[in-house]
Amino acid sequence: MQPTTLADRAVVTVSGQGAQDFLQALITTDLGQLEDGEAKPGALLTPQGKILFDFLVTRDGEAIRLETGTDQAEALLKRLTMYKLRLPILLSVTSPAAVTIHFEETSGGYRDARFAKAGQTVYRTYGEEGETSGIQEYERLRIAAGIAASGADYALQDAFPHDVLMDKNGALSFKKGCYVGQEVVSRMQHRGTARKRIVIVTAETALPATGTPLTVKDRPIGTLGSVVGASGLAIVRIDKAGEAITSGEAILAGDVPVKLALPSWAGLEFPAEADEASA
To answer: Residue 171: which residues within 8 A CB-CB, separation 6 or more?
Structure first.
């Protein structure tokens, strides 16, 4: 596949003395574990533990780059400015920003840790313009890997990090100490109370549009997100989905029968399936 440039990306840059310490106390990503040449997922949460902004974090020399959607960039900059107070750091935004996806290792690229978890090779470069003809192929790969995107798969301020597997893809730190919303996500982690998860949806025919409910016996268990042809993503109640799978009940997206699968790299099972296997 040829490199393809995404048209809806922006970059917020945090630089200056103390930039890492500033972000380390705010965002979910452990910057102490962020390697050069790596693009690691992360989020800034609400105090209630829901995703307020999501982004990919990379190092740009001594600065830290937050790649996010163009629809989030200005609000993210404003929120970081609110937290900045009198700290000696600089904040800037480039929106839109040229973010190009490469499907093999490339000089100056940053390996996308989300795809690496799924056994896929995806690199991102910044400031380099390329073709846009491969966007659908990128979306197809993203769906197959079970990687959620805000807007298409979940609404900001509505989803917990666990819903979109941030606890599994390296976006959430449970060791680095306090950050905004940390107490809530830590409680969910230790009590095992995450009931919703992103799943891969497949059908024999084309799936209906994003936003279509997923139902079992006319009862909703989730909502269809990203769709490319007969494959898509959805956030579902995994207990309800597991019950349907175990009992053989039909799961429908609109009137289209579908199959659901948790991304294999996440190491998760539907609860009813796990209970049956251990019986």
So the answer is: 28, 29, 40, 41, 42, 43, 161
